[in-house]
Amino acid sequence: MAKVESFALDHTKVKAPYVRLITEELGQNKDVISNFDLRLVQPNENAIPTAGLHTIEHLLAGLLRDRLTGVIDCSPFGCRTGFHLITWGKHSTVEVAEALKDALNEIAFNITWDDVQGTDIYSCGNYRDHSLFSAKEWAKKILEEGISSDPFVRKII
Fold it and tell me: Which domains does the chain have, with CATH numbers?
């Protein structure tokens, strides 16, 4: 079985919230695809409840596309501590952390329920499992802690 880099990461050594470049891969046509770890809470110490994480996911899908070029996907970790962000091309961890911080600020202080895309039976596979209140509270908590551009040394952006 192929070794997955994220499972080799020592989760006891990281200091969340942070942005970490997991890998940059070169495709057959020489296109670069980047995979980032957007870790919002400390692994094995906290986890964002499913409804709040689900709403953050739906919001980040649009908000990060508004702030970064080449966003392919932003998907939650099963452990509920953050997201994978997949992009075309290269981005620095500072650039991604700034976009994430701005998006979380938007969620925390400006977003209303009408802004959340994909919350009905036709556009979401689990439309009943959302909480904007939870998403806002977690966004505020993450912003208060500060987002680092390094997973091991706190370099708050």
Answer: 14-145 (3.30.1360.80)
